[in-house]
Every structure is written in C-alpha cells, then in structure tokens.
Amino acid sequence: MIGYVTLGSNKIAVAAGFYDDLLKEFGAARVMESDAFVAWGRGNESPVLSVIKPDDGKTATVGNGVMVALRADSTELVDALHTKALSLGAVNEGDPGLRAGGFYCAYFRDLDGNKLNFFYHP
Known about the structure:
The chain is an alpha/beta fold. It has helices at residues 12-24, 75-87; strands spanning 4-8, 29-34, 37-41, 48-52, 68-71, 91-98, 104-109, 115-120. It has a single domain, classed as 2,3-Dihydroxybiphenyl 1,2-Dioxygenase, domain 1. The chain contains two helices and eight strands.
C-alpha cells in the first residue's frame, strides 16, 4: 500500500551518503535523484525511501510521533542493519529485541534526527 516515504533533510549530500551505505545492506540502491532529493528502492514494485530538502525553503524538522519502519527478512538482518546505522553515526533509540505482538525491532535516529526502525515479523 505504501508507495514511498520522504524524510526531510538539511544536508542532502550527508544524508545521501548515510543512506547509500545503510540501504545497500538492505538490497536497495538509488532510483531517483536531483540536487534536493535522493530516493532508494529495491525494484519497480518496491516502496521507496527518500530524503528531500523542504520545498518551502524552510529548515527540515523531525515530526513528533513520526517513524518509518523498514521490513527485514530476518532477525539477523535487523541486528546487522541496526549496527550499520549506528556505525554510520545514527543514534540508538532501542536495541534489537522482541517487542509486543511478536515483532523483532531495532530503533534509531538518522543524521537529521528522523526516527526509523528495522523490523522482522514472521
């Protein structure tokens, strides 16, 4: 159902480098880009994650209560992706582990403060 998710960034080049390194571990690559926008996906039918400078010219800010969850194929991949995100400068928002409902998740904030998680649910 989700086609794409866009996260605001004030430093597109820095954010692009972070997500290039992180999302390649996830099997994603750049699918579109411009001076103010970069998007990653895993093929024509996959949802896309992107970073963008706000179109109104104002500073990008983090939405309170907003989070992007990215599905992984295993708990091992959740662990590896979380470790990779932290090694790239992300801030830990919750160590990998089992959560309510049988979800295995790991939470982090990217370099712009956006909250994301990787999760596995069989």
